[in-house]
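debug: dumping io for the single-chain case to check the tokenizer round-trip. Nothing else runs in this session.
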Amino acid sequence: MSKEATFYRVKPFSDWSRFLKQAKPLLLEREAESNLIWEVGRVSADQAGLTRPWSAWLVLDGKKPVLCALPSVTEYLILSAGHPGACAVLADFLSAKSHSLKGVSGPEPVSEVFADAWAEQSGKVSNLSASLSFYVASSDPKFASEVAGGMRLARVDEGDQLREWAIDFVADSAHPMDPRVVARLSENMMGRRDLFVWEASGEVVAMGGFGRETPNGLVVNMVYTPRNRRGRGYAGALTSGLVCEANARGKRFCCLYSDFSSSVRENLYERIGFQRIGDFAERAFTDQSLSEPSDRQ
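debug: decoded output
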């Protein structure tokens, strides 16, 4: 264990409200990057007792929270943004308690640092299974589009088409995701009135919406344009519309993940005002160099 790690201690929790009370300063300070903790923690707390007890861990430096972690239903450890130096003591604690992990998901560099520490503790191999850029934009209504058409809520009668688009969205992704999970996500987003479409000349040409929520922000997800409609600005227009919708809902920011990579071309989201603030990664722990199904939604 490093000298730095010895200053930290791990505090386990079995109650979301008590965890949140102590973790909140860190989760609000790094709110966008820690959106998975906000969402998975809340949802899993609502379901606690149905399948398993609720659990989470907080690494403290004195009384100051420096790293949050909780397990997903797929046995991945979800990390908040936080101090990389806290990862070793968290790995030590979980290993001593005989916890089993299939992988880790979180912002860099904590995802990588924890994965290295866990691999050393467990003897497992850490394999990078997803690497994404993370973008944030303030929910400012200055975002405007000159693209023909407009954004509106998706309708129930469009559900079948949008579910097919959700599956196509998975097929276009550079990283593996379960199409059934994403199809259910599109249905859930529609049910929450969080799924939108861009309509031009009476035809639906793109979709996108909000997959997760934090106290002050919304996570944009599933922005998709069919191949025969690409290159006309629909995805950018829809994303700009979602930023305005977030503002109308009283949110301060929108954030999203992107697997776009180019050394010569600007990312779509940068062109419409988003700023890249870091990277997010998933790593699978295996006995051999094998990939695990994605935990990202």
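debug: round-trip ok. The longest strand covers residues 125-138.
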